[in-house]
């Protein structure tokens, strides 16, 4: 399992973790906060990561965490 954290473009901080579900897929879970107050949790998965470096996987997970929280609708 790996840990990631960051801040979304709309100001929420997040802490998350991910793990490899198989050789080319990761599943992740993240908790979102604003000014220290809990606002929600989300989870997701990313496919087709076979051969990606650890840094690339981290970046892909962070991008997906951001997108899941900030995308409309």
TrEMBL record:
Descriptive protein name: TonB-dependent receptor
Keywords: Receptor
Domain of life, per lineage: Bacteria
